[in-house]
Design brief:
heterodimer, A: alpha+beta, two-stranded antiparallel ribbon, 4 helices, B: alpha/beta, FAD/NAD(P)-binding domain, D-Amino Acid Oxidase, Chain A, domain 2, nine-stranded mixed β-sheet, 15 helices, globular
């Protein structure tokens, strides 16, 4: 048994909002020497491309845990809030 | 615009306890929940401790609440990549009501608890994310929702909106950034397993449950692992301190995957199937990260107020949340009787928290986060314990060392004598 985040939509339910609840100013991340979001996010929403020096953030599989909000030292978010009512992750058991 | 006697933001254990308390006293209560039902957004390790706070209003709690198993068996394990040393406490006294703790599922339990508040007369508004607090002359007088910018007004707002509590922040009760050392990320795999297999593997019958806290094998990251038995599933997860995790290249799921492959854990999980994966922050800094708990027209409860105790042996939160919710509710009832919603009147909330186990226990364990900040706990000590046990039991045709000398050598090798003495002193003081 293994957690494979490529299959997260098979384990955990989401009602994805087209309007993202988190907006990352990705240019801020280019200056960042830490990028703790990349390894700390338990849903792998943040990907750093070293060759092109580019950060990519996808909110689709966000578990709304709050980790990125706490570890980002540059406050690179122009929006960080919880999804609109009824949208986002939907735990069934856990 | 609708006017209520009190608005509770968040229908988790703190919010629903507050709403239940106030609704029972006849107050007109709005209970707001951002999920499409209470509990939809909530996860935790899995053990709910005894809720003494709710035993007055729900005296037969264990007969009516949706519980998985009650905990009779507690195990503490020191673990390395290939070995583990456990201390096991199996307690018959915990096998009868009032039970000391239960495994539960939050989407089921939180929904049930919110329903108790609704049956008492509270108005539950689901799918309602709060976007802003409303102020008038410096007082908090309501909230605005993200949906249609709807406004709800009440002379009292109770912030029960969880660890990040944007309500407390927007009301000016929490300032500055969170310290990553004060936050742990909890990740959890829910694993399907037939009841009789769980009973056999963990030595349980009927509704008996086991909880296992594990130290070590977290890649040197400060944190710990838990393994809990539900009725017919297991909860396996970790709490990892963000300040420590962010200094490594580990991801939480790599650490959890490594753990699932650890030979002793793998045997317990064999045949299991992953049902759900979830994550949330834990305000593990406790007393050290508390916001202001009240101001004019507002009180802060539960995780929003960092009412959480993480000692490694105990992981308490929901019991503190429910107690704080009940006390906030009672304070609101008095405030309505006196028609006084000022800071002065609501300061009774903090006073009563200080007189209860909530702030007493948080103060008692205020140094524990510093003690747990010691990296040696998470790697060297588990290796020391397992290394000593290995030498004690190993038969390899060579003469054995005197036990005292062997222990001293192992301590010198793995910890260092000075460090050991400092750790014993620090550990003693913090517990």
């Amino acid at each position: 048994m293994k957690i494979n985040l490529d299959e997260i939509f098979d384990y955990t339910s989401f009602n994805i909002d087209r309007d993202p609840h988190i907006i990352l100013e990705e240019n801020v991340c280019q200056q960042c020497d830490q990028r703790a979001c990349v390894n700390c996010c338990p849903a792998a929403c943040y990907t750093w491309d070293e060759d092109n020096k580019k950060m990519t953030f996808v909110h689709d599989g966000c578990l709304e845990c709050g980790t990125c909000y706490v570890v980002c030292k540059n406050e690179a978010f122009s929006r960080w809030r919880y999804p609109r009512g009824g949208f986002g992750v939907a735990f069934r058991m856990t | 615009m609708t006017v209520f006697d009190a608005i509770v933001v968040g229908a988790g254990p703190a919010g629903s306890s507050a709403a239940l308390t106030m609704a029972k006293a006849g107050l007109k209560v709005a209970l707001l929940e951002r999920g499409s039902f209470p509990g939809e957004k909530n996860m935790f390790g899995g053990v709910l401790h005894r809720l003494t706070a709710l035993e007055d209003v729900l005296p037969n709690f264990w007969d009516i609440a949706p519980l998985e198993r009650h905990i009779v068996k507690k195990t503490l394990t020191f673990m390395t990549e290939g070995s583990s040393f456990s201390v096991n406490f199996d307690n018959q006294a915990a096998n009868q009501p009032p039970y000391n703790g239960y495994t539960i599922f939050r989407p089921t339990f939180d929904r049930w608890l919110a329903d108790q508040a609704v049956q008492a007369g509270a108005t539950l508004l689901s799918s309602s994310t709060v976007d802003e607090v409303l102020r008038e002359g410096g007082r908090i007088v309501g909230v605005r929702l993200l949906r249609d910018n709807a406004e709800l007004r009440a002379p009292i707002v109770i912030a029960a909106d969880g660890v990040l509590s944007f309500v407390a922040r927007k009301a000016g009760l929490r300032q500055g950034r969170f310290n990553p050392d004060h936050q742990g990320v909890c990740i959890k795999a829910l694993i399907d397993m037939p009841k009789d297999v769980i009973d056999d593997r963990f030595g349980l019958t009927r509704r008996e449950g086991a909880s296992n806290e594990i130290v070590g094998n977290t890649g040197g990251v400060r944190g710990g692992t838990f393994l809990y038995t539900n009725y017919n599933s297991l909860s396996l997860g970790m709490v990892l301190e963000l300040g420590s995790l962010m200094k490594t290249d580990w991801t939480p799921y790599h650490l959890l995957n490594n753990l699932m492959e650890q030979p002793q854990i793998a045997k317990l999980l064999r045949g299991g199937r992953l049902l759900e994966y979830s994550a949330h922050l834990v305000p593990k800094g406790g007393y050290q990260m508390q916001p202001e708990l009240f101001s004019d027209g507002i009180m802060v409860t539960g995780d929003a107020a960092a009412l959480c105790i993480v000692t490694g042996l105990n992981l308490e939160g929901i019991n503190l949340a429910a107690q704080s919710g009940v006390i906030a509710g009672k304070t609101a009832i008095v405030a309505h009787q006196q028609r006084d919603f000022s800071k002065g009147c609501l300061s009774n909330y903090k006073k009563q928290l200080e007189d209860s186990f909530v702030l007493k226990d948080l103060k008692l364990y205020r140094r524990t986060p510093d003690m747990l900040h010691n990296d040696r706990i998470y790697q060297q000590y588990p290796e020391l314990v397992c290394g000593m046990m290995d030498e004690i039991y190993r038969i390899d045709g060579r003469p054995k060392a005197k036990m005292s000398q062997m222990i001293l050598r192992q301590v010198k090798e793995k910890i260092g004598l000075k460090n050991m003495l400092a750790d014993v002193y620090g550990g003693w003081r913090s517990l």
